[in-house]
Amino acid sequence: MQNHDKKFQIKVGLAEMLKGGVIMDVTTADQAKIAEDAGAAAVMALERVPADIRVQGGVARMAALEKIQEIQETVQIPVMAKCRIGHIAEARMLQALEVDFVDESEVLTPADDENHVNKHGFDVPFVCGCRNLGEALRRIGEGAAMIRTKGEAGSGDIVEGVRHMRAVQRGIRTLGILDQHELMAYAKEIQAPYEWVCWVAEHGRLPVPNFAAGGIATPADAALVMELGAESVFVGSGIFKANDPDRRAKAIVQAVTHWQDPSKLLEISKGLGEAMSGLDSGKLTTEEMLSRRGW
Amino acid sequence: MFFGWRVQAPDQKAGFEFPKMLKDQHVIGVLALQGAFEAHRGVFRRLGVSSVLVRTANELEAVDALLLPGGESSAMLRLMEPQELFVRIRKRIDSGLPVLATCAGVILLAKKVTPHQQSLGALDVDIERNAYGRQVFSSVEALHFSPQYQGDNAGEAVFIRAPRVTRVGEGVETLAWRGDDPVLLRSPGILAATFHPELGKGTVIHELFLREIERQGR
């Protein structure tokens, strides 16, 4: 096995281990502990949850390094952190800090409005957001070891997440019925690397794990995106903006495991208190939509 | 393309043939609370052996062997609690249910875990979580094998934020090492690997487990 292949195998390996689990946004070590005790498979360290970034505005950057370290020292599960799209230096610093995964995320203010980081050169694995198959394969072409559909972060509204997951799955199914001679034209149409288009056409799935993010606020939302083909979920504002984060976190963890069992979902979803209030993402302007960042 | 290692044609049988009894009657359960359970099912499929997912105590009762996959052990523990699955699994293993555990699965099986967390205690080893460091220290390593190991060469092993076995009890055999660290262990009916045989192309660790099931069945 060549060195490059090995490195990629190790990166995708961690993504494989996170399947069927929940990755929770946390801003403090205390929240990280609550997440771990609730059964989170990993935590995402950030300065403000997306709902607060929306309200407060300003430039959203990589979290304070001391904060990330404190979280790393508090939990045993993997610690992820976000860097701005195209911010090579933030990504390098997060690698030096030994975070377990870097999320090159549209939730932060982009540092480069044309280019994403070339992720092949890093030892730390990257996860990136996407809205459709073309965007997913562009990120994988750059070296992403995990893909998450973007959804609309901080909205508590699942409609964008559903739209993006459906778009990815529809793209994969479309490739399944195309003739081999049609693949280059399709690659051109969705602006994706030809080799990866061929790979997906052959295997009928993405070459890296495909998780869902953005707008998941209830166990039912989590079960819905699993039903649509997500292999795991990221929950941001949905937990710590709800009025009983601890119970909601546990319930969403259960829902991701038992999404096929409606009676279990009923049991899980009782007595959780109020969910985050949420925003109708249909009423957001294009500028307000975080999912439109990146390409 | 650089994905040759992850993918094989589905249902492609290996050359190794198992006794008919194993294929027809034994149901292999894969604990599917969280983690790499689908990858393990893929290996069994390549061996021509079917498997079922286990998420509840009822599903556990229907299986004759159990696989504990890699993932996050603390997440799996939390998911075992509400349905008392933890107690049921321990009872079944105590009464002879064969088990293959990988990575986090070995943490679940160990006697003692550092830092402390609950465990099944079915395999007499002590273990330390994330002992080789965070993800940037995850690696692919060559193993060396004991003379007792009678399988084919398992080749290189993938370690992801792997645990380290710090004590091996009497009655537990070490079949392979990474440097000085035991990474493949066996006690009657139990096979445990701190690495990820499900991430490679190979099937030898799963084959070894099927032989162990057969041995216990005699």
Description:
Chain A has 295 residues and is of the alpha/beta class. Chain A contains 13 helices and eight strands. In chain A, α2 crosses α12 and α8 crosses α9. The model of chain A has no long low-confidence stretch (mean pLDDT 95). Chain B has 218 residues and is of the alpha/beta class. Chain B has one domain (28-215): Rossmann fold, CATH 3.40.50. Chain B contains seven helices and 13 strands. In chain B, the strands form three sheets. Chain B has an eight-stranded mixed β-sheet. The longest helix of chain B is centred in the C-terminal third of the chain and has 14 residues, at 204-217. Chain B starts with 19 loop residues before the first helix and ends with a helix. At the A-B interface, α1, α2, α9 and α12 of A face α2 and α4 of B.
Number of contiguous helices of chain A: 13
Mean pLDDT over the residues of chain A: 95
The largest contact between protein chains, plus residue counts on each side, is: A-B, 48 and 43 residues
How many individual helices of chain B? Answer: 7
Shape-level CATH architecture of chain B: 3-Layer(aba) Sandwich
Low-confidence stretches of chain A: none
Strand tally of chain A: 8
Quote the distance from N terminus to C terminus of chain A: 33 Å
Secondary structure tally: strands of chain B = 13
Reported by name, the CATH topology of chain B is Rossmann fold
Which structural traits does this protein have?
heterodimer, A: 295 residues, alpha/beta, 8 strands, B: 218 residues, Rossmann fold, eight-stranded mixed beta sheet, three-stranded mixed beta sheet, 13 strands, globular
